[in-house]
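My current task is to audit a protein record that another person submitted. Thanks in advance; the entry in question is below:
***
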Amino acid sequence: MAKREEILTTALGVIARNGYRRTSVRELADAVGLSQAGLLHYFTSKEELFTEVLRKRDEVDRETYIDGTEDPLEAFVGVIRHNADVPGLVQLYSRLAVDSTDPDHAAHDFFVERFAGDRTEITAAIAAEQKAGRIDAGLDPERLASVILAAADGLQTQWLLDPSIDMAAHLSELWRALTSGAAR
């Protein structure tokens, strides 16, 4: 287990720095002092390795930006803000998100569970804002949560193409638009 954790932690740094397409299994193996076969002993495939890297990234992001935060949507924006510092991980996430639409892909279950969990958390935050009168109570919180997640993922794609886009500022603007609607 310790070696697997070392692999995942090292891979986070290497992929963040080099990007998904420029990171090979050989490079990751070398970084942790293993052969390629030795590295893949801990994972069934390259796809599983990269899926587990994303799972590790989510764990680190949760500990760093989300746990203990009173405002879950500000925490979410904080994660998106941090993503601008790790373009390689954003590339990996974007690539695997698309590939995972194939039910046979190693990342399929990870993304299904991830989106369900994110929707649940954001839905609860929206419902709390509705109860406090800051978001129109007539809007469906689950649909809004899906829209916010879609906006975040779409902004990440746009940012990969044009790094001048401030993903966090755009999401904050969307949130302000939602919360200002309750006053009308």
Q: What stands out?
A: The chain has one domain: 2-183.
